[in-house]
Amino acid sequence: MTSETDNFSWLIKARTSNQEALLRLYRLNITDNSNPVSQQTYTLLVGAGFSLWRAAFLSDVTRETHKIAEDARKLIKRLIQDNSVGYPQDRETREWMAGYYINNAIWRLLIAWKFIKEEANEPTPQALVSLKDFDERGAENESPVDLWNSSHEALCAILHILESRTQQTKALE
């Protein structure tokens, strides 16, 4: 188990790295691009970036099945009772929420990679190979920090490819 200050140190680095990736996405401004695959990939990356941003704040979890189930029940009650969930409720149910956000990021990244790979024969970045491995063997047994780090690396790898394609397209115009 990591100490609170170790988690805080990782958290600050993770948030900074995530914010830098989100800024790269913002600067990319894919709305001007007429390629639907690039636009679909872009929106998937924005969703993955958001999910990783939120998951970083929820990384201090134990991943114990009974706690995940308890938090899932708390979440359902909150949804039924208040019809609203915000960040305080995410923290309160972080055993379940951490998995939700990281799984959402992984799913979006794997789909984004599928779009890119179908459009052009790109070699699979190592970060995507790691995500596929996590997905196949069950991410629930992995450390949230390891999952986050691999997902963030995959986000940056796909973003780099999308940036390169966008620059090539603009050069041809």
What would you say this structure looks like, in words?
- The chain is mainly α.
- The protein has helices at 4-28, 36-57, 65-82, 87-92, 94-119, 126-137, 144-172.
- The longest helix is centred in the C-terminal third of the chain and has 29 residues, at 144-172.
- It is elongated.
What's the alpha carbon Rg, rounded to whole Å?
17 Å
Strand content: under 5%
Instruction: Give me the strand/helix succession.
Output: HHHHHHH
The 3D shape can be described as elongated
> How many helices in DSSP terms?
7
Summarize the main sheet.
Answer: none
Structure keywords:
173 residues; mainly alpha; 7 helices; 80% helix
Short note summarizing the structure:
With 173 residues, the protein is mainly alpha-helical.
What layout of secondary structure does this protein have?
Blueprint: H1 4-28, H2 36-57, H3 65-82, H4 87-92, H5 94-119, H6 126-137, H7 144-172
